[in-house]
C-alpha cells in the first residue's frame, strides 16, 4: 500500500511530538513541515528540504493527503484548513478555539467537499474522548459532563491547596516552571476550558452548543483562605467545565470554580492531569483521566486521528461517517441566573449580636435553606469571619441575597458541585 502523505503546520511542542512519533511508522511519509523560523533550534531534526516558512506550500502541495494543523487560533489557521480541504486534503487539528468559534462553518465546509476533520487532541490532550463518544458510546444518551480540562489551572489550584499559598505566588511559580504562559489569561480566566467544553458538549449531546452561551469564570479570585475553608468542610476547589442537558434540550454549559466533595474522583485529579466524567444511559457514570497536555500525550491523539484516516484512505468514497458532524439543531441555552446550585459564601461581618440571624433571615426570605453557617473567631478590627453553605437555590436569588448583605463584605461566592 502507498504511504499516507502528511503535511504539518506548526512544529512547537505538539508538532515535535507528532513528527517524532510518525518517524517510526513505515506507512506514513511526512512530506512538508511549515514553521515560522526555519533556522530556529528544535528538539527534533527535520531535513532542510522538508521545511518551509510558508504554510501554503503545505496546503497546496498536490502530493499531500492529510494536513495536520497545530498552530492554534482562528486566523490564519482557518484559511489554511479551508484551502487544504478545497485541495482535496483531510484535516487533523488540535485547535480548540477554532472548533469552538467556527466549528459549524468548518464541518459544513468539510462535508461539502467530502473531507473529514478529526480533532481528538483539541479537547483533553492525550485522553481519548471524542472517538469513544462517537463510536463506543454512540448508543448512549449522555446528559451530564463534569470535567477538568485545563492543566495550568489545575496545577495552580493543587499547589495553592498543598502549600497553603496565594494565587499570585503559585502563578509566578507555574510560569517559571513553564506550566503557565507569560500571559496566562487564556487559562486562568477559563477561556481554554470554555472552548473545550463547547465542542465536547456539542459532540456528547448531539446538539450544537454556541460558545457565546457558555458561562465562563476563572480562578483569579480564589483565595488561600477559601482553600483552607473548603478543606475543613470536606471539599477541594477545582475549575470545572460542566454541561447538562434535559429532555427538552435545555443545555446548561459553563466553566467556573467549584467546591468538589473529597469523596468524588475529580477532587483527586491533581496538578496537570485532566479528567472527564460522563453520565448517560445505559452506560451510567464513567471517568476518563490522564495527561491533558504535553508533547507526547497530545501527539498520541493527533497520530491516532491520522491512523484512523489511513485505515480507510482509498478504500471508500465516504470516509469515517461516524466521525463526521451530524448535528442538525441547536440546544436551548440556560442562562446562568436561571441555574440552580449550592453555594459557598465567605463573609466578613461586624461582630455584633444578631449578625448570623440576619444572614439567615435574608436567605429565608428568598426561600434559601442553609446547609451550614459557621463563625470562626473575631479579628482585631472586631469583624467576624462567617462561612455559609446553602442548599440548592437559583443563582439570581443568591445575587439578591448578596445585595441585601449591607454592612458585610462578601469575600467569595463559589458554587458547590452536587
Please give a quick description of this structure:
This protein has about 425 residues and is an alpha/beta fold. It contains 14 helices and 18 strands.
Structural summary, described in words:
The chain has 418 residues and is α/β, with parallel strands linked by helices. The chain folds into three domains: 4-124 and 295-322, NAD(P)-binding Rossmann-like Domain (Rossmann fold, 3-Layer(aba) Sandwich); 130-292, Dihydrodipicolinate Reductase, domain 2; 339-416, Alpha-Beta Plaits, CATH 3.30.70. Helix content is 34%, strand content 28%. It is built from 14 helices and 18 strands. α1 (13-22) crosses α12, α3 runs parallel beside α4 and α4 runs parallel beside α10. The longest helix is centred in the C-terminal third of the chain and has 18 residues, at 295-312. The relative contact order is 0.13. The mean pLDDT is 96.
Annotate the secondary structure layout:
Blueprint (H helix, E strand, L loop, with lengths): L3 E6 L3 H10 L5 E7 L16 E2 L3 H4 L6 E4 L7 H10 L3 E4 L2 H17 L4 E2 L2 H4 L5 H5 L6 E8 L2 H13 L3 H11 L7 H4 L2 H15 L9 E2 L7 H9 L2 E11 L4 E12 L11 E9 L2 E8 L3 H18 L19 E2 L6 E11 L4 H11 L4 E9 L4 E8 L2 E2 H10 L4 E8 L2
Amino acid at each position: 500500500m502507498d504511504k499516507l502523505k502528511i503535511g504539518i503546520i506548526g512544529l512547537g511542542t505538539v508538532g515535535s511530538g507528532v513528527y517524532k512519533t510518525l518517524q517510526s511508522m513505515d506507512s506514513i511519509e511526512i512530506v512538508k513541515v511549515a514553521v515560522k523560523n526555519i533556522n530556529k533550534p528544535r528538539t527534533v531534526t527535520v531535513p532542510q528540504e522538508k521545511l518551509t516558512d510558508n504554510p501554503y506550500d503545505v496546503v497546496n502541495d498536490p502530493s499531500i493527503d492529510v494536513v495536520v494543523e497545530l498552530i492554534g487560533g482562528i486566523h490564519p489557521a482557518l484559511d489554511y484548513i479551508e484551502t487544504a480541504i478545497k485541495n482535496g486534503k483531510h484535516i487533523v487539528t488540535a485547535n480548540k478555539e477554532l472548533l469552538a468559534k467556527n466549528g459549524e462553518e468548518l464541518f459544513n465546509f468539510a462535508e461539502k467537499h467530502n473531507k473529514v476533520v478529526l480533532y481528538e487532541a483539541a479537547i483533553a490532550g492525550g485522553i481519548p474522548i471524542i472517538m469513544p463518544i462517537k463510536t463506543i458510546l454512540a448508543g448512549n444518551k449522555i446528559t451530564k459532563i463534569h470535567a477538568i480540562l485545563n492543566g495550568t489551572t489545575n496545577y495552580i489550584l493543587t499547589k495553592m491547596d498543598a502549600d497553603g499559598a496565594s494565587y499570585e505566588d503559585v502563578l509566578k511559580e507555574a510560569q517559571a516552571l513553564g506550566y503557565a504562559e507569560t500571559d496566562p489569561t487564556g487559562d486562568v480566566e477559563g477561556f481554554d476550558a470554555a472552548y473545550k467544553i463547547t465542542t465536547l458538549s456539542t459532540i456528547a449531546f448531539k446538539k450544537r452548543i454556541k460558545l457565546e452561551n457558555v458561562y465562563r469564570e476563572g480562578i483569579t479570585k480564589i483565595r488561600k483562605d477559601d482553600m483552607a475553608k473548603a478543606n475543613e468542610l470536606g471539599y477541594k476547589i477545582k475549575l470545572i467545565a460542566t454541561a447538562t442537558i434535559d429532555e427538552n434540550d435545555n443545555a446548561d454549559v459553563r466553566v467556573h470554580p467549584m467546591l468538589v466533595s473529597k469523596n468524588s474522583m475529580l477532587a483527586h485529579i491533581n496538578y496537570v492531569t485532566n479528567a472527564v466524567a460522563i453520565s448517560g444511559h445505559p452506560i451510567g457514570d464513567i471517568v476518563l483521566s490522564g495527561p491533558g497536555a504535553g508533547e507526547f500525550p497530545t501527539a498520541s491523539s493527533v497520530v491516532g486521528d491520522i491512523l484512523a484516516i489511513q485505515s480507510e484512505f482509498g478504500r471508500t468514497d465516504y470516509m469515517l461517517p461516524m466521525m463526521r458532524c451530524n448535528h442538525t439543531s441547536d440546544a436551548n441555552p440556560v442562562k446562568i441566573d436561571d441555574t440552580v446550585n449550592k453555594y459557598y459564601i465567605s463573609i466578613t461581618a461586624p461582630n455584633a449580636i444578631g449578625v448570623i440571624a440576619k444572614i439567615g433571615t435574608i436567605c429565608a426570605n428568598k426561600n434559601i435553606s442553609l446547609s451550614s453557617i459557621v463563625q470562626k473567631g473575631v479579628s482585631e478590627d472586631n469583624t467576624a469571619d462567617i462561612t455559609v453553605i446553602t442548599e440548592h437555590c437559583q443563582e439570581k436569588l443568591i445575587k439578591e441575597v448578596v445585595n441585601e448583605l449591607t454592612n458585610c463584605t462578601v469575600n467569595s461566592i463559589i458554587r458547590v458541585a452536587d
